[in-house]
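Much of our argument rests on the idea that a fold can be written as discrete symbols. Part of our work consisted of pairing the sequence of a single chain with a tokenised description of its backbone. We regard such an encoding as a compact summary of how the chain folds. The amino acid sequence and the backbone structure tokens for this protein are reproduced below.
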Amino acid sequence: MPPAKAATSGRIFQNPVLEALTKTHIAVPLTIFFGLGAVSGYFSVHVMGFSVLNTVSMYLVGALFFTFIEYIAHRKLYHMGTSGSERKARIQYIMHGVHHDHPRDKKRLALPPVVSVVLATLFMGLFRLVLGPSGIAFGGGFMTGYATYLMVHYAVHTMNPPKNIFGVLWKHHNLHHYVGDKGAFGVSSPLWDYVFGTMPEDPKAGRRPVSA
């Protein structure tokens, strides 16, 4: 892996309030979204009367669905084409480009809580609308999936890779950052990179590069 860049990054906004809103301590979103996942599970069983089996099943499906949304958002939104558009380039940099420039900046390894809570509210409302009462457990799994993604992403960028099966996640995300950002879009799981053929070239294994 190449030498790490600075663990802090420059300013994005001159306005101090906006600048502050681009940063967060990782404990804040982890507490919010692991907590929301737990409350959703409790609510599904003890308030809405679903069985534990039904709740756990919807929970797991919701968590799996999150890994798909994570992949699509990372590939199509965070790495959207910006050719010929300064505005798009600026938006892309604010959303994700700054992270690639400063991957070890601990305060920008998660979406700011204000943005996260707004998106979580929209997703939970959508799941409840589409799936009915089952959407609560599904949404809880989705939020737990998001919290798990945040935890993995933070660990990959701030800790040494473990010498066990989880080291695969470190290697996978480092391929995205240091080999080529046209692949390895999954963070909490490489599943969808295999499904959609976006596994990048592994220099040590001599794999063929992908085309995004």
